């Protein structure tokens, strides 16, 4: 089964295509490309959220939903579970993946750190979209301190 | 496992994105988007071709390579085999999929036939790219007579 590779290759091509055609060299063009990627991730996340095993969707608490992302969603997309989940119990969650698959093929020098955000944005959207399908509004950002470790921060938006 | 769905959703988003941002309404813009999609498919196909089971790659004949696409590649990407393979024994092959997964969610009215090409182009590139990795230059086109049946025509380019 080459499925996992298929998604990764397609993701890589998509990032490259958006960077080649959408971007002015300046920060405005890059921001536009990031927005497009995040939107695509959001819609894919929404659709995936509807297909993931329904019996697990009877969540009682917010924390259950976040655990679902770390386990079921991550396995469905990346064939592995998230490495850790922390929360301040006030609506902020930090999901850490110690070897994030979409970064793992990047060389690990510090000079590549600045290239990392464009490989994280789709997945931020994916998390936000899945949460949205599960009835939770959120803001999702990502950060990398050392490749290929990656942290996703989810801030729940109370209505 | 939501993998199959993941690829399909991402493919749908990619087609939609290219159509929304790349295209003039006219045929020139659409042709440009089709070219971009075909190129993405080609590069993903090249990369997949390098990862598919190496022991099966000791092909003696062209026909073996085409059978490999119909079986191993199709299973890796679409979790099913191609339904039929025909050839004129002069370098032209017709691969038929009676329910092509990227078309199967489209409504089946005749009025949707004209929308079909943009859902086939990535896969044409995928076939051409995998063949390229296996050392064969080709032209690949696709046609749909009635949804969701689809024929891919592979014409080998002799050097």
From TrEMBL, chains A, B:
CDD domains: TRAPPC6A_Trs33 (cd14944). Keywords: Endoplasmic reticulum, ER-Golgi transport, Golgi apparatus, Phosphoprotein, Transport. One of its GO terms (cellular component) is endoplasmic reticulum. It is found in: Endoplasmic reticulum; Golgi apparatus, cis-Golgi network. GO terms for biological process: endoplasmic reticulum to Golgi vesicle-mediated transport. The keyword Transport applies. Its main location: endoplasmic reticulum. SUPFAM superfamilies: Ligand-binding domain in the NO signalling and Golgi transport. It holds the Pfam family TRAPP. Belongs to the TRAPP small subunits family. BET3 subfamily. May play a role in vesicular transport during the biogenesis of melanosomes. Part of the multisubunit transport protein particle (TRAPP) complex. Heterodimer with TRAPPC3. The heterodimer TRAPPC3-TRAPPC6A interacts with TRAPPC2L. Interacts with TRAPPC2L. This is Trafficking protein particle complex subunit 6A. It comes from Enhydra lutris kenyoni (northern sea otter). The lineage of its organism: Eukaryota, Metazoa, Chordata, Craniata, Vertebrata.
